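so my prof wants the structure for this chain in the tokens format not the other one, which i didnt know existed until like an hour ago. anyway here's the sequence
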Amino acid sequence: MHQQTQHMQTQRTRITHIPAPEGVAPATGYTHVVTGTGRMVAISGQVPLDEHGEIVGTGDVTAQARQVFENLRRCLAAAGASFADVVKLTYYVTDIAQLPAIRVVRDEYIDAARPPASSAVQVVALFRPELLLEVEAFALVEAGGLAP
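here's what i got, hopefully its the right format
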């Protein structure tokens, strides 16, 4: 198997996706390796809380995922980034069987042809019992951006 490499040049940085490193089974729905240059942006795990701290979508994983990805979008924007700059997503879910529904929403925000590296972990619970998922992100942006 040959290593497949995909490059993406944005206004902010150059990001390289390596979905199938030699000797590693191809990924489905994520990329094994994402690398690039620039300033790292770490977004804390986002949960489905609106701007007033109220839960969105109690019992509805799709509604919760949509709120989580909107929160991630806003956090990325605050750092001068977008989903095109995301190199890694980590999902914490209370039911791993819900991951396909979460990915459908995720694909509304990312380039599904070149997804970021990802990990998904099923957890017993999150900090409030109504929460079904939490997602954190890492992104790379131009080195001279918003950093102090």
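also thought this was worth mentioning. DSSP finds two helices and seven strands in the chain.
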